[in-house]
């Protein structure tokens, strides 16, 4: 039981470190000063798109770290045992499809 608590604290600490480091890098790299009050709709929208894409990347790194941790501990869980895994996969697939649809335009059909 104590080993599981230690594992949980280790995962929490690693997740917080990755999240904090990633957000620090993002906030230093994004041109936040270029979107002043006189900036138009397009620059602000582009900034939000960049911010969202970097946030997704950080979360995918965190998910990969969790996966490597459980692989390393040989505690892989089956998708049938843990239904949240399937939900995350479906949500990620749906988000990727929406991004591709947006990038290709409204008349493109994805199958």
Account of the protein in words:
This protein starts with a helix and ends in a 7-residue tail after the last helix. The mean pLDDT is 76. Helix content is 74%, strand content 0%. It is flat. The protein is built from three helices and no strands. It folds into two domains: 2-76; 79-111. It is mainly α. Helix 1 packs antiparallel against helix 2 (41-72). The chain has helices at residues 2-29, 41-72, 83-104. The relative contact order is 0.08.
Please sum up the structure shown.
Helix content is about 75%, strand content about 0%.
Tell me the strand percentage band.
Answer: under 5%
| Discrete helix count | 3
Number of domains: 2
* CA-CA gap between termini: 47 Å
Any idea what the radius of gyration is? 19 Å
- Average pLDDT reading: 76
| Uncertain stretches | none
Number of beta-strand segments:
0
Question: How are helices and strands ordered from N to C?
Answer: HHH
**Bulk shape:** flat
Give the biggest sheet.
none
* Helix content estimate: over 70%
- Structural class label: mainly alpha
Main traits of this protein?
single chain, 111 residues, mainly alpha, 2 domains, 74% helix
Topology (elements, then pairings):
Layout: H1 2-29, H2 41-72, H3 83-104
């Amino acid at each position: 039981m104590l080993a599981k608590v230690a594992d949980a604290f280790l995962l929490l600490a690693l997740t917080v470190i990755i999240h904090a480091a990633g957000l620090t890098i993002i906030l230093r790299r994004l041109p936040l000063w270029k979107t002043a009050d006189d900036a138009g709709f397009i620059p602000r929208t582009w900034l939000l798109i960049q911010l969202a894409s970097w946030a997704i990347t950080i979360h995918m790194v965190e998910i990969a770290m969790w996966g490597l941790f459980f692989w390393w501990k040989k505690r892989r869980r089956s998708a049938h045992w843990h239904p949240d895994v399937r939900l995350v996969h479906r949500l990620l697939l749906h988000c990727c499809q929406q991004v591709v649809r947006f990038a290709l335009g409204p008349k493109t059909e994805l199958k």
